Amino acid sequence: MKVTNGVAKEIRHYVGAIGIFMLVVGILVFLSYNEIPSVNKDVIVSIIGMIVGSLSVVIMTVIGRNPDEVNELKKANEGLTSKVEHLVQQKDELEKMLITVQTNIIDQLTLLGANAFDTVYNKEKKCTCGENKCKEVKCEGE
Question: From residue 72, how far is each of 19, 68, 85 by CA, in Å?
């Protein structure tokens, strides 16, 4: 079975975290049976404090929450959020463009309809009186 780099890295982290956890448990068991000499007590307490302080990272790794992975996911989430905002902006622009096109089409169709109506129902008659003022003279025209 071939293990890829990412999986091998996760296995190393998991085994290392369990190793540190077992080390802390071992130290606690050892200290429950043995007494620390007063000469080395401060040094031993400091070292044990640092090891116990790293338990939060160890526990997070054991339960599957890698801090680096969480940070990577946060960055990816921020990137996706900015893309969503950009897409919403583009959608709004496209809606405005569509509304403009619809308004222009309605205006053009209105003009075309009015022109067609005028052409069909208001044909100009040829003037027979020669004055070219048929409406004033009331020329019937042809």
Answer: 26, 6, 20
pLDDT number for residue 132: 60
pLDDT digits (tens, 9 = 90+) for 28-87: 788 778 887 788 788 878 887 887 787 777 777 666 666 677 788 888 898 899 999 999
Contact at 8 Å (CB) between 139 and 127? Answer: yes
Would you state the structure tokens that stand for residue 59, as one six-digit string?
């526990």
In a domain, 137, yes or no: no
Q: Indicate the burial class of 17 (C-beta count within 10 angstroms; 0-12, 13-18, 19 or more).
A: buried
- Residue 95 in any domain: the answer is yes
Euclidean distance between CA atoms 61 and 76, whole angstroms: 21
CA–CA separation, 139 and 132 (whole Å): 9
Query: Which among 21, 7, 13, 16 is positioned nearest to 65, based on CA atoms?
Result: 13
Residue 117 lies in a domain: no
Where in the sequence is the domain holding 17, given as residue range(s)?
5-99
